[in-house]
Every structure is written in C-alpha cells, then in structure tokens.
Amino acid sequence: MKDAFGLPQSLLVLGGTSEIALAVARRLIARRTRTVWLAGRPSPGLDEAAGRLRALGAEVHTVDFDALDPAGHEDALGKVFAEGDVDMVLLAFGTLGDQARDERDPQAAVRVAQTNYTGAVSAGLVCAGALQAQGHGSLVVLSSVAGERARRANFIYGSSKAGLDAFAQGLGDALYGTGVHVMVVRPGFVRTRMTAGLPEAPLATTPEAVATAVELGLRRRSETVWVPGALRVVMSALRHLPRGVFRRLPV
C-alpha cells in the first residue's frame, strides 16, 4: 500500500528500459518502493535495467510486454496483478520516430501512432481496470508538451502524444472517486538516448528532474505535472497564438 505521502511500495513500469522511467524507479526505491516490475520486450537492456535496480535493494521482476501487441496486454499485465496489489503503474513507453522519414513512409508514421497512442490506450485500460478492482493505486502517464499543439517539426509524434494526453485526462475523470489516481506528466525536451543528436530545445531537462517532479506530484496527488514547471506558462501562450503566427515560429 502507498504511505501517507502517496509513495508506492510496488511499481509496474510499462517501458522497462525507458531512461525516464528508470530514473523514477531509482528515486522511488530510495524512498519506499520495494517491488518493481519492468515490462518490456525481452532484451539484454531490460535485464541490465533490472540488475541495476536490484543493486539498489529492490525486488525486481521482468515481464514480456510489447506495446504493439494489444491482444497480449491483458494476459501479460494480468500476470503481474495476479501476484498481488500494485501501488503504481508508470506508463512510459513511446517512440519519437523520424518526422522527415515518416512523412514519406505512412507505415512508419502509423507505427509511431500505434506505439504512442493505440498501445497506450490498451495497456492503460488494462491497468486501470486492475487498479480499480484492487481499490487503490496510481497510474502515471508520461505525455509530452509536444501534444499541446502540433508543430511542423514533429506533428506525427505530437499528434500521438495529444491523443495519449486526452485519453489519460479522460481516464482520470472516469476513475475519479474510485480510489485510483491518474497523473499526466508533460515533460519538455528531455536529454535521453531518444533525443541524442537533436537540437536542444529551450527549458531542456533531465530524466532525474522528471523523476523529482513525479515524486512531488504523487505526494500532492496532482493530476497534471509539467517539467519544468515554467512550461505551463510557455505552452499556455503558444496554445493561444493565432495559427498564422504560430506557423512562422522556429519551433
């Protein structure tokens, strides 16, 4: 069970090799988390991530999970919940894609959408149902400021995150009062392997900063968390710019 400050004893990570997710796991293990499930496609990277978390003192398990296989989500994730209550689910999988390539290759664009949105809808609903059945828990969804308004530079990725963000917010409203807390996390540019080589955006942040914000959000029972917090104001302004002006911005 979670403590009075909202921090979990048990954690299920969907996207078990995500640098952001692993930073969150490390921070929570340092506080209170003792059992961690890392869900992802079998790989040396997943095994290495599990080993690093075990070295911090947690009991860590891996589970085969593929965002692009929604038909297998209920079975794969159901096995985790069958082992006992899960205090927190962190939905952290996703792909950035390659905007220029994906515009020329519709199937590649569809893969981005299926991973970031369709797979998340499936896994999110499976976990939400399990959390509701046990009567408590948090579902933390890693969204992105890219979903706030589609930009020419990454509208395929941004549109998939916009869908994910809207889904998570609606799910949070649907679960309000059930004992299940949904928190949407909207980071800006995060310095990870996924963004390596890309031009760094203003207000760039780190996985560790996102982890700090997640912990604070859990303690406050926040519904939406921006990382860094200044992005809330920036995106509010950009969201309301006339389209003709927004189109000309170097974003």
Account of the protein in words:
It is built from 9 helices and 7 strands; from the N terminus they run βαβαβαβααβαβαβαα. 47% of the residues lie in helices and 16% in strands. The protein has 251 residues and is of the alpha/beta class. A 7-stranded parallel beta sheet has the order 3-2-1-4-5-6-7, with helices on both faces. Helix 7 (207-220) links the parallel strand 6 (180-187) and strand 7 (224-227). It has helices spanning 19-31, 44-54, 73-82, 99-104, 106-134, 155-175, 207-220, 231-239, 243-248; strands spanning 10-14, 35-40, 59-64, 88-91, 137-142, 180-187, 224-227.
Unreliable parts: none
Structural class: alpha/beta
Number of helices, where a helix is a run of at least 4 consecutive DSSP H or I residues = 9
End-to-end separation: 43 Å
Question: Mean of the pLDDT scores?
Answer: 92
Tell me the series of helices and strands, N- to C-terminal.
EHEHEHEHHEHEHEHH
- Strand numbers in spatial order across the main sheet: 3-2-1-4-5-6-7
Total E-strand runs = 7
Strand content: 15-25%
Major β-sheet annotation = 7 strands, parallel
